[in-house]
C-alpha cells in the first residue's frame, strides 16, 4: 500500500480553468469581460434591477460596523484600538470602500488591493500622510480593481488562486496583483471559483426577453401610430430595367425603410401618370384595425416579476397588480433581511481572515490578539413603504444613478434615509 503523505494535496476542486481563464459559465455571452459588461448594462439600464440594487446598497451602508477585542487584556485592547485607527485613517472612507465591495452583488465578485503606508503623521511624504505619527504600518486604502479590467487569474500547480492578472485602461498593461496583498469578496462560490456567481445571473434570461419585448413594443406602437408605409412604383422601376430604374428603386426603398413620424416627416413624390391617367408613383399608410391579440405589457410585467423574485425583492410587487397582499410582508421581510445579513457576514469573514491578521503581522503584533470586525443587525424593512417606492421609481423609468440630488429628494419624500 502506498504511504500517504500527510501534508500533500492530492485532489483538485474540479474548477474548469485553462491558463487562468475560467470556463464554468454555460452561456458564452456571460463569460469573462463580456459577462461583466452585460451585468453592468443590466444594473445601469433596467429600472427594476437598478431600484433593487439601490435599496440593497442603501440598507447595507446604513449598518454600523465596529471592532471587538478578542479579550480583555491590555494587548488585545491595544490591537483593537490599532486596527480601528487604521480603518479610520484610510484615504478612501469606509462607506466608499463598502460600496466598492458591494459591486460583488452585480458581478459575483469584487477584488480590492490593500495599499499600505507608514504612519508618519499629517506631514508624511510619498502617500504616508496619517493621523498618527507612530511610524507603524497602516492601511492607506483598499483600492478597487474593476471587474472589467480582469484579464485572467493565476493559479498554482494545485489549482489554488495566487493572483488576479488585469489589463486596465488607460495603458492596458498587464499587471499582476498577488492574493496575499488583496481581498477577494464573493456572493457565493463553487469549486473555489474566484468569480463567484452574480446575483443577476438568474435574472439574465427574463431581462434579455424583457428588453427585446420592449423594443418590439416600441416599434409596434410607432407602426400603429404612423401606419405601415407603402410606396407604389412603376413596373419598370420595380423590375430595375435601366440604371435609372435601379437608382430610383434604391431611393424609394430607402424612403420606405426610413419613414418615421417626427418633426421632419414628409416625402416628395413625382407627379407622374400613365396613358390611362393612373398615378405611376403613390404612397399610402396601412393602419391596423382594433387591438393586438398579444398583450405585450403583461409579458413585460411577467419578466419584471421573475427578475424581482430572483433578487429576493418580489416584495415590491406586494399589493400591486394582484400579485399578493401585504399580509405576506412579515415572511418576505425576514427572508430579505436574512439575505442582506448574510452578505455582510461574508464581508466580515474575508476581512477578519485576511486583512486584519496581515496588518498585525506586519507590525509584529501577537496573532492571538486578533480583534474582529462585526456589524450591527440589518434593520427591518418597511416593505409596504419600500415596495411602493421601488415600484414607482421602476415604473417611472427614473435613473437614480446619475442624479444624487433627485434620489435623495425622492427618498426624503418616501420617508426613507438619504444616500450615504
Describe this structure in words.
The protein has 420 residues and is α+β, with helices and mostly antiparallel strands. It folds into two domains: 17-198 and 328-413, no CATH class; 228-286, no CATH class. 41% of the residues lie in helices and 15% in strands. It has twelve helices and twelve strands. The chain has helices at 32-45, 47-62, 74-87, 94-101, 104-107, 204-226, 235-239, 243-258, 296-310, 329-362, 383-395, 404-413, and strands at residues 17-18, 21-22, 65-68, 109-118, 137-145, 150-155, 161-166, 175-178, 182-186, 228-232, 282-286, 372-375. A three-stranded antiparallel sheet has the order 5-4-9. A three-stranded antiparallel sheet has the order 6-7-8, with no helix packed on it. Strands 1-2 form a two-stranded antiparallel sheet. The longest helix has 34 residues, at 329-362.
Question: Can you give the mean pLDDT?
Answer: 82
Q: Based on CA inertia axes, which overall geometry fits?
A: elongated
How many separate helices? 12
Helix/sheet category: alpha+beta
> Helical percent range?
40-55%
In total, how many domains does the architecture comprise? 2
CA(first)-CA(last) distance: 63 Å
Write a concise keyword list for the protein shown above.
420 residues, alpha+beta, elongated, three-stranded antiparallel sheet, 2 domains, 12 strands
Quickly describe the structure:
The chain is of the alpha+beta class and 420 residues long. The protein folds into two domains: 268 residues, no CATH class; 59 residues, no CATH class.
Amino acid at each position: 500500500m502506498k504511504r500517504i503523505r500527510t501534508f500533500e494535496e492530492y485532489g483538485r476542486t474540479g474548477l474548469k480553468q485553462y491558463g487562468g481563464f475560467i470556463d464554468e459559465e454555460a452561456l458564452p455571452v456571460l463569460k469573462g469581460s463580456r459577462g461583466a459588461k452585460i451585468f453592468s448594462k443590466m444594473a445601469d439600464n433596467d429600472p427594476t434591477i437598478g431600484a433593487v440594487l439601490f435599496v440593497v446598497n442603501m440598507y447595507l451602508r446604513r449598518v454600523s460596523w465596529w471592532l471587538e477585542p478578542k479579550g480583555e487584556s491590555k494587548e488585545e485592547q491595544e490591537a483593537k484600538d490599532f486596527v480601528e485607527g487604521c480603518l479610520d485613517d484610510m484615504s478612501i472612507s469606509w462607506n466608499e470602500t463598502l460600496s466598492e465591495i458591494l459591486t460583488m452583488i452585480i458581478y459575483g465578485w469584487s477584488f480590492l488591493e490593500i495599499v499600505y503606508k507608514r504612519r508618519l503623521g499629517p506631514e508624511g511624504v510619498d502617500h504616508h500622510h496619517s493621523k498618527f505619527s507612530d511610524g507603524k504600518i497602516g492601511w492607506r486604502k483598499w483600492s478597487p480593481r474593476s471587474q472589467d479590467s480582469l484579464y485572467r487569474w493565476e493559479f498554482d500547480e494545485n489549482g489554488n488562486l495566487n493572483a488576479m492578472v488585469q489589463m486596465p485602461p488607460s495603458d492596458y498593461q498587464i499587471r499582476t496583483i498577488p492574493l496575499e496583498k488583496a481581498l477577494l469578496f464573493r456572493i457565493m462560490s463553487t469549486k473555489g471559483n474566484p468569480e463567484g456567481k452574480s446575483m443577476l445571473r438568474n435574472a439574465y434570461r427574463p431581462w434579455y426577453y424583457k428588453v427585446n419585448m420592449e423594443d418590439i413594443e416600441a416599434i409596434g406602437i410607432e407602426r400603429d401610430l404612423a401606419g405601415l408605409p407603402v410606396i407604389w412604383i412603376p413596373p419598370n422601376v420595380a423590375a430595375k430595367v435601366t440604371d435609372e430604374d435601379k437608382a430610383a428603386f434604391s431611393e424609394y426603398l430607402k424612403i420606405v425603410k426610413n419613414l418615421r413620424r417626427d418633426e421632419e416627416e414628409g416625402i416628395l413624390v413625382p407627379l407622374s401618370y400613365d396613358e390611362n391617367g393612373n398615378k405611376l408613383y403613390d404612397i399610402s399608410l396601412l393602419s391596423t384595425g382594433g387591438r393586438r391579440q398579444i398583450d405585450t405589457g403583461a409579458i413585460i410585467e411577467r419578466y419584471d416579476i421573475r427578475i424581482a423574485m430572483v433578487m429576493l425583492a418580489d416584495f415590491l410587487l406586494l399589493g400591486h397588480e394582484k400579485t399578493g397582499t401585504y399580509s405576506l410582508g412579515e415572511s418576505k421581510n425576514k427572508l430579505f433581511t436574512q439575505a442582506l445579513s448574510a452578505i455582510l457576514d461574508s464581508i466580515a469573514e474575508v476581512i477578519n481572515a485576511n486583512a486584519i491578521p496581515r496588518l498585525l503581522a506586519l507590525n509584529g503584533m501577537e496573532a492571538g490578539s486578533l480583534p474582529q470586525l462585526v456589524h450591527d443587525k440589518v434593520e427591518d424593512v418597511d416593505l409596504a413603504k419600500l415596495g411602493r417606492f421601488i415600484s414607482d421609481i421602476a415604473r417611472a423609468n427614473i435613473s437614480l444613478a446619475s442624479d444624487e440630488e433627485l434620489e435623495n429628494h425622492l427618498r426624503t419624500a418616501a420617508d426613507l434615509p438619504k444616500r450615504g
